[in-house]
Specification:
348 residues, alpha/beta, eight-stranded mixed β-sheet, 12 strands, 40% helix, binds alpha-D-ribofuranose, binds calcium ion
Length: 348
């Protein structure tokens, strides 16, 4: 079902090309009130991610949303960026003009402690609940747990783009980048989620690999909204080349926007509740160990998504980003392969 009321969210990300598309989508959805953006080291260093988030906010005319700089390195591992995938500027070598200033008075973790911590709640008891959509390594969230676990427990819901169940990894045979880049952080977030009896929604490679932006879809975007389509082309051209070179794919997998779309329309994906851990050592470091057969007899701490209606995703993505009526987007069916799963909700 689609969330009916406006839901407050904080987007924790490492922009990054697909993070940027996810931010654009989130800022186009009236169901979401994006309270803030927090930046984590991942695809690119934090300063670069901060700079890119501002460029996206400028593009969306939303320089009212605060952007907080987060952790500059993983909890324990050496920091490994993904600039080979996202380009020297982290935004597909679009080299868009810098947006000056916009510095905040506190770090991302300080902000999260203030927003979710006792002090923040006491200041304004009516504060609506707020969720986190995590699109990068979960270092900021892990630091929040280490510094104020009660604050972490106040996060209404976490939807994380990361991990993989049966799909192969993109950083090793078995590990996905966000959890591989900081496995200790991912492990701590899943452990703490288990401890407080909640479930993190895992939007992993099993579903995001089916979300492929192709040249024809890009052309369709430009026909529907030339300015937005051209911006998307500008920041994804490098990503197209990367996917051709590494996966012989004509197009690019846009992982992060699916986490945002799913947050608003829960029919887009289906999966199952299960206990999940993240490996922090050895050859399979960063792997999500998804106990789908309940060997460990532990309470579920994760909602692992394994099916996605790719056509419905692109219909939502296009309609919100380009301001097009869903029912007019008749070419989506022709341009997006059937992903083998129909979102239950009948298309309006
Ligand atoms: O593995 C894909 C994920 O890692 C995406 O979130 C991408 O932006 C990178 O952060
Ligand atoms: Ca990301």
């Amino acid at each position: 079902m689609r969330v009916k009321e406006t839901r407050k969210v904080i987007i924790d990300c490492d922009p990054g090309i697909d993070d940027s598309l996810a931010l654009m989508l989130a800022l186009s959805m009236e169901e979401l009130h994006v309270e803030a953006i927090t930046i984590v080291c991942g695809n690119c260093p934090v300063e670069m991610g901060f700079s890119n988030a501002k460029k996206v906010l400028k593009q969306m005319n939303r320089l009212d949303i605060p952007v907080f700089k987060g952790e500059e390195r993983p909890l324990r591992r050496e920091y490994v960026n993904a600039l080979d995938t996202h380009g020297a500027d982290g935004l597909g070598e679009s080299f868009l003009p810098e947006v000056p200033g916009y510095e905040q008075s506190m770090s991302a973790v300080e902000f999260l402690k203030m927003r979710f911590g006792k002090r923040g709640r006491s200041m304004d008891q009516e504060r609506e609940e707020c969720s986190v959509i995590a699109l990068g390594p979960m270092t900021n969230l892990a630091c929040l747990i280490q510094q104020d676990p009660e604050a972490f427990a106040q996060i209404r819901e976490i939807v994380s783009m990361g991990g993989n169940f049966r799909s192969y990894g993109n950083c090793s045979p078995v590990a996905e980048y966000n959890y591989w880049a900081d496995p200790d952080a991912a492990a701590l977030v899943y452990e703490e989620t288990a401890k407080i009896g909640k479930k993190i929604t895992m939007i992993g490679l099993d579903v995001t690999r089916k979300i492929v932006l192709t040249p024809n879809l890009l052309e369709y975007m430009k026909r529907l909204d030339s300015q937005t389509g051209t911006f998307v082309q500008e920041i994804t051209k490098f990503y197209f080349d990367f996917h051709w070179e590494w996966e012989h794919l004509i197009g690019c997998v846009i992982n992060d926007p699916l986490a945002v779309a799913y947050f608003v329309n829960r029919n887009l994906c289906s999966g199952f509740d299960t206990y999940t851990e993240v490996e922090t050592e050895g050859i399979s470091i960063g792997q999500t160990v998804v106990d789908s057969m309940n060997f460990y007899k532990k309470e579920p701490n994760a909602r692992v998504m394994i099916q996605v209606d790719a056509r419905q995703f692109f219909t939502l993505f296009f309609s919100r980003l380009l301001g097009a009526e869903e029912k007019t987007l008749d070419l989506i069916e022709q341009l997006v392969p059937d992903s083998g799963y129909q979102a239950r909700e009948v298309r309006s």
